[in-house]
Design brief:
about 400 residues; alpha/beta; Rossmann fold; 6-stranded mixed β-sheet; 10 helices; 22 strands; about 25% helix
């Protein structure tokens, strides 16, 4: 019988990997695995904090302690850079969001003969894990799991519904999709539910887009000290702590830049964090987010100007980019191929790139490197705690 092999790293999907290249589900670095697959836990193997782990598809790494988790996030980001021949001049410590800090969640509910199930889907399946707890969610979101289950059991359709939760300044926004409210009774029950749970806003998408049913006062979210009107379904960083860390890095790294373009700006998460002594142009394609950013900019003194523009179809051109001292971009998972090509062709010397996908970021980073930029700073970010989803903030200079 061969001697047990030691796990030396975690693969991209969370499996433990031995020196021989063997992949072992449920193992972390420091564990030992015998020929039959039995795992002897090592110093970085912890007891998962959630009873649903290994069934729920929301988390893949609850069996890894913080040291192993930090190494995983860092290696994913650094290896993506190295795959394009890039080495950061300065690799900053990883930021890991703590438990109970996730401020948005996408759940599913299904009415059953015995009541209802409500939670995330199982890994690789459409089946719903009926949640009893969720240690990643902010307590205000987690506290709604039970009441939401009862509401779906009493009034839900006989089909799966989607439930998006977002923590706003006034409380929790709940948005239902594929949920028909037929008749006065269910409608009144929905309003009672919103009132009893103290929701900030309740909306239903019955096939024609979200319709707000309950909103006692305009819902806002405060970003960089500025309250924004929060459009239904608007994008927010998953945790406030990771947002703050990335925004502080960006503001510091942009140094003496006085004119900055924030591309793929969303509501203006980074634009308003950068504005101290700077003029910032916030460019966004999604109309509701753009309008919210525009209104907040007017109320905040005009240091942030909002521009409605689809940067995938109409990226800022070199002549436009050359008016700025620096650029920040935070594109979707697909990256920013077209916009990066124009940045490479401009005279810009400083770019802060925030990414939720190390692979597309590395592809774009290689284009910047070919144009003379160097990767000056890189910080890995793990705001989706215990997940294989990894993010980063980076600085390029030339």
């Amino acid at each position: 019988m061969n001697a047990p092999e030691q796990i030396i790293r975690l693969a991209a999907k969370g499996d433990g990997v031995t020196a021989s290249g063997r992949h072992v589900a449920g193992a972390v670095p420091g564990d030992r695995v015998d020929e039959g697959g039995a795992i002897t836990p090592g110093p970085h193997h912890q007891t998962p904090p959630c009873r649903h782990f290994a069934t729920c598809g929301g988390c893949q790494l609850q069996h890894a302690d913080d040291a192993a988790l930090a190494d995983f996030v860092t290696e994913r980001v650094v290896n993506a850079a190295r795959s394009q021949g890039l080495e950061p001049a300065e690799l900053l410590p990883v930021h890991l969001s703590p438990p109970h800090t996730r401020r948005r969640a996408g759940l599913h509910g299904l009415r059953t003969a015995g009541g209802a199930v409500l939670g995330y889907r199982e890994g690789g399946s459409h089946r719903i894990v009926d949640l009893a707890e969720c240690p990643v969610l902010h307590p205000q979101l987690a506290g709604l799991i039970g009441p939401l289950r009862k509401f779906v059991a009493a009034h839900g359709p006989k089909a799966m519904v989607g439930i998006d939760l977002t923590l706003a300044d006034q409380g929790v926004e709940a948005s239902f999709s594929q949920f028909l409210l037929e008749g006065l009774g269910p409608t009144e029950a929905a309003l009672d539910f919103a009132r009893e749970q103290g929701l900030a806003r309740l909306s239903f998408d019955q096939g024609y887009g979200p319709e707000t049913m309950w909103e006692p006062e305009p819902v806002t979210v405060t970003l960089a000290g500025v309250p924004f009107g929060l459009p239904p379904g608007a994008f927010l960083q998953a945790t406030a702590d990771a947002e703050r860390r990335m925004a502080e890095d960006a503001a510091e790294w942009l140094g003496d830049a006085r004119m900055v373009a924030d591309l793929f700006a969303g509501l203006g998460t980074f634009a308003f964090a950068l504005r101290g002594g700077r003029k910032v142009l916030a460019v966004e394609a999604e109309r509701a987010a753009h309008l919210a950013c525009k209104a907040a900019g007017a109320q905040a003194g005009g240091a942030v100007l909002a521009l409605h523009r689809d940067l995938f179809r109409a990226p800022l051109q070199p002549a436009e980019l050359n008016r700025f001292d620096a650029v920040l971009l935070d594109p979707p998972r697909a990256g920013a191929r077209a916009q990066i090509a124009e940045i490479a062709a401009s005279t810009l010397t400083r770019v802060v790139y925030v990414s939720c996908n190390p692979s597309s970021w590395a592809r774009d980073a290689a284009v910047l490197a070919e144009a003379g930029f160097r990767l000056a700073k890189l910080r890995p970010v793990g705001q989706f705690r215990w997940s294989t989803h990894v993010e980063l903030v980076s600085l390029f200079e030339r």
